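In this supplementary section we document a worked example of the pipeline. Step one takes a protein sequence of length 399 as its only input; no multiple sequence alignment statistics are reported here. Step two produces a three-dimensional model, which step three serialises into structure tokens for compact storage. The input and output of this example are shown verbatim.
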Amino acid sequence: MEPLRSLMDKMGRHFRPGGKLEKLYPLFEATDAFLFTPGTRTARAPFVRDAVDLKRVMALVVVALVPATLFGVFNIGYQAQTALGLAHHWLDAATRGLQIFLPILLVSYLVGGFWEVLFACVRKHEVNEGLLVTGILYALTLPPTIPLWQAALGISFGVVFAKEIFGGTGFNFVNPALAGRAFLFFSYPGQMSGDAAWVAVDGVAHATPLAVMRTAAAGASATDHLAAAGYNWSNMFLGLIPGSIGETSKLACLLGLVFLLIVGVASWRIIVGCFAGMAFMSALIMCWAGPSAPAYFTLPPHWHMVMGGFAFGAIFMATDPVSAAATNLGRWIYGLMIGALVVVVRVFNPAYAEATMLVILLMNVLAPLIDYCMVEAHVAWRTKRLAAVKAGQRRDGAT
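The serialised model returned by step three reads:
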């Protein structure tokens, strides 16, 4: 690495103040920080000694997304082979999936990176590593049939309007990847939903489990209706079904979750809260449902958890440390409300069954209010306790 380090040092003088490429210094600094440990040091106390910084946190999240990414690539090709009636071969499926996924990922990173660098150069600050996560999260939430120009439009909206105009990484009030996907969902619903959005084969349409549930008659068994369409709990958990690129395999999501919990990046309170809220609300609705209730009312909690993008959203989106709740009790409330509201929207508004995206965005907006209420309640409790202690001391002094 010494020759590369020497080359970067020689090039650096052109990007530093006074150099010909001074305005592009944020781009040079981002490249240098990506390749090497930053060379700057804190000159004087106080010092913080910790192996974890923003660069490492973002890299750890990207590593956690590897299982979902690899399976998503394979599943794109697998669904195409199934639609065409071809024999299933994992290498052919992976090759076909890679040919479809790589352009989407490159567009996400290149277009998102362009806006990041542009804002960094104008503001004269560093290019943050947040794009490493935003770029791949956004790509994994898209259907494999998305036109590349729409993918570019969505990441532009997410980076510019959900993050950069508020100050960049650390100042976004909603998850930028989800904001970009929501923009595409409402702007181009034909390419983001419906039967034809999930299989990368021209002329082939295949409904996802959530779409299948919309056609279930009142009084029917939800699980029987899904089974008739070829969906059971096992294939929805493993992920060999149509859907957004990274969301189909709940097993891959759980592997990423284990890694995030081991390295201590994700908040386990939020994740447990999401699944607990979903389990409680779906069980409550099942108990309330009568014999003629809509089929969605009879869907058990463990089926809700493997349908749609809930697991992916709860593990990788809801836990965004910037847009999620920050207090411990607030994280519980935040997670519980996400899980419960996803079920409520699915059951009572079957026209929009995939509620995870908008519910997380809604809770991103409410997260500061939740934290404010938690802090105020804690201050009130401490004030009351302190007053009681002082009153007790006065009584002891009087006696």
